[in-house]
Amino acid sequence: MSYISPKVQDKFDTLSADLKAVILERGESINTIHDLIRVLEDIVKENEK
Fold first, then answer.
1. Hey, how many other C-beta atoms are within 10 angstroms of the C-beta on 4?
2. Which of 9, 15, 22, 30 is the most interior residue, by most CB within 10 Å?
3. DSSP conformational letter for 32
4. Cβ-based burial of 30 (10 A; exposed 0-12, middle 13-18, buried ≥19)
5. Are 33 and 40 in contact (CB under 8 A)?
6. DSSP state, residue 28
7. pLDDT (tens digit, 9 = 90+) per residue, 2-48?
8. What are the beta bridge partners of residue 3?
């Protein structure tokens, strides 16, 4: 189950619905902006393959 910290919720909410869904499907805990950036980078890398 994914967790989005209230500290980064406002940034998370600016993402597209599709991207938010992909992030939530991953089951990651996102506590900081750095966690969010890492997850986004991972998604980009996976889609480049």
1. 19
2. 30
3. S
4. buried
5. no
6. -
7. 999 999 999 999 999 999 999 999 999 999 999 999 999 999 999 99
8. 29
**Is 43 in contact with 22 (CB distance < 8 Å)?**
yes
Which domain range does residue 29 map to?
A: 3-48
- The secondary structure of 5-24 as a DSSP string is -TTTHHHHTTS-HHHHHHHH
Give the H/E segment covering residue 49: none
Structurally, how many domains does the chain consist of? Answer: 1
How many CB atoms neighbour CB 23 within 10 A? 20
Q: pLDDT tens digit string along 27-36?
A: 999 999 999 9
The residue with tokens 């980078």 is 41
